[in-house]
């Protein structure tokens, strides 16, 4: 099994040439915005692009001009370049990366949000003379994880940006950001990758996987190579098959199988399985609603028999009732994480609610 490189180590950027070109054109024109907001779903390459942009700027515009000494044609930097190596090892003095910090309980867990202590000092950092005579760069990943105080601290920096300083904000949900932050950034909206491209990248990163599994994981990834890789690492496809096996018994669930599955997934030491199953169940219910809205047209199965299950359920209840159920299940799972409800009971509650509607 091979592992995909982290964004700070990744040499490849797939599917976002338009965004790369926009940044490169701004650099060549001499009118580079002081702050860029990179938006789009999780796992599609936003952080990879941010590090690519940072390395390019810290190297003073990449590794030279294009053909015949013209302007640079790409943001790419060779992994042998000293700037690339120092960024990859977190050792570049002119780059600061802001992420969620760690809790104080000595368990090594990251906090659920970026707090003001995580962003403290970035204004002073960006105002300093660059250690290597070029630029200072700050990457915030992900900006929508900032709480109000952290966001206000970043806003103050954006209101009075220093010279030769660049801020790159990675955002999965830009609507959660302060409007004043969004308005002070140039936005680059990145789109989900084509399914075939996700499959190609996944197969390259995980050559141990069966081609049929690669195809199924790429479909589950919905344009996100990061999501597909996470599902592969956490046994997500096997869990999805188990989930579909339970749903296939509707309108009457198998109680023994249901309790066994909920017991295993709901254990306190099964965080990855719990997160994966709840996300997959919510995703599948949303997919059911979308399929009902277009009367099943264009539905491509992840596992065999999935379309038949959806057809039975949509015939049993109206689209509005399935939409309402999806909203309730999503809210239930969110409450489990927020107030530490019992996981097994929450999963049983969700499945039994699906069963009641299927038997209506």
Give your account of this protein's structure.
- The protein is of the alpha/beta class and 360 residues long.
- The protein has 2 domains: 17-189, 3-Layer(aba) Sandwich (Rossmann fold); 234-358.
- It is 51% helix and 7% strand.
- The protein is built from 16 helices and 5 strands.
- It has helices at 17-29, 46-58, 82-88, 116-119, 122-127, 148-159, 179-183, 195-205, 211-221, 225-233, 236-247, 255-265, 271-293, 306-316, 319-339, 343-358; strands spanning 35-39, 95-98, 136-141, 165-171, 186-189.
- A 5-stranded parallel β-sheet has the order 2-3-4-1-5.
- The longest helix is centred in the last third of the chain and has 23 residues, at 271-293.
- The protein is elongated, with a radius of gyration of 23 Å.
- The chain starts with 16 loop residues before the first helix and ends with a helix.
